[in-house]
Amino acid sequence: MPITLLVGGVVGGVAWLLLAAGWSAAEATIRQGAVQTALAAGAGVGAAITLMLAFRRQRHQEHTAHVTAYLAERNAALAEQVADNTKYDATERRVTDLYTKAAEQLGHDKAAVRLAGLYALERLAQDNPPHRQTIINLICAYLRMPYTPPKVAHAPNPERDRKVALRAARRRHQAARAGILLLAEPASRQESGGQEGELQVRLTAQRILSVHLRDDRPADQPSTLPAAPAFWEGMSLDLTGATLIDFNLTNGRVTDAGFERAVFYEDTVFRGTAFTGAARFYEATFREIAWFDKATFAEVADFVRATFCKHAGFDKATFAETARFGEVTFAGEAGFRMATFRSVARFEAAAFTEDAWFFGATFAERAWFDKVIFAGNVWSNRMVVVDPAAAHVWPDGWRLETTPDGTSHLAQEEVGSGLAQNS
Q: Which residues pair with 422 in a beta bridge?
């Protein structure tokens, strides 16, 4: 409105100047100059008004374009988020359906259906990393179910049977002398069809754990190298009270590992396994040979009251925290050659029925061997005790002797004759 009045005033003034009469020549000239000036001013005002209107129109268009682009971008982001949520929900529903179906198959009375359920779970975990621990938990739960494994009767072999009988008789004799109670050998018998099927299902479940918990990267640099696609990192195991047959976790890598009161049939292999969390084998029973060579225990290793019916191998094993072997029964040879105990090593009341090997073992802190029974030979040459003056507890009748090269060994004393044996 003010702009309209201004333009109208300029036009009216020009009209008055042009239409008025009776001016002298000089006045007319002056009037003419004033009119020209007024017209020029009016033209300038008009141009300014036009420029201002164009600027406002451009600014409005730019603002509109900016708002439109922002709204389009926001709507696209919302649409993408909705699509992602829809896809995630669909994936989760599919995973849940597959998981439920596979879990139901594990409860089927036919071994073939149970095997199919295990393979479905394995494929599901491989394709869906966030669900791997849940599937591991389900497989462990299946292995924890009560089960008595039948033992296949071997073909007659007189020479082998004679050696086995002699070794068993020797173990019983040495155990009787030391006052150690040994577990009875399981009777041999042929498997029935149903038992064979269940055995195959359990062996398959164990194989899934072995394959996907195996990490073949060098132990000193696992985080700097890419892991194999089949390796499931960061998994924990709860096999408390499980019955395991021919269990093999060579080069495995697990966090928390629970094997309390588990029973291991046939040979058990944890060779090179890295336990990054607690390893619990409390009251576990190893019916055949148990291999823990080069295994590493980052936290507490608990073998209290475990029973090793045959050879127990811990050669070159590393125990970063407390190693608990209290009240353990070693019915066969026990090997701790070149083992490293970086924290307290507790063997109180352990029973060694056959030879005990501590050749080259390193004890960085206290070693407790109070009330230990050695029924066989003790081989402790080149044993390294970092602090011989620490509060170690050695078995009754034994003492630590340091050799000129700085290593140590255990020496047994005989009553009435001093030193009896250096092993």
A: 411
Task: Give CA–CA dist 100/293, Å, rounded.
Answer: 39
pLDDT at 168: 60
pLDDT in tens, 50-88: 888 887 888 888 888 887 888 888 887 777 776 666 555
Structure tokens at 281: 């084998």
Model confidence pLDDT, tens digit, residues 389-422 = 889 999 888 888 888 887 888 888 764 433 334 4
Q: What is the C-alpha to C-alpha distance for residues 168 and 288, in angstroms, rounded to an integer?
A: 12
Maximum distance among all alpha carbons in the chain?
159
pTM over 0.70: yes
Helix H or strand E segment including 172: helix 158-178
Residue 111 three-state SS: helix
Handedness of CA 73, 78, 79, 81 (dihedral sign): positive
Q: Distance between CA 86 and CA 295 in Å, rounded?
A: 45
How many CB atoms lie under 10 A from the CB of residue 2? Answer: 6
> Residues of the chain with pLDDT > 90: what percent?
52
Question: Taking Cα atoms as reference points, which of 373, 380, 370 lies closest to residue 411?
Answer: 380
Question: Beta partners for 237?
Answer: 257
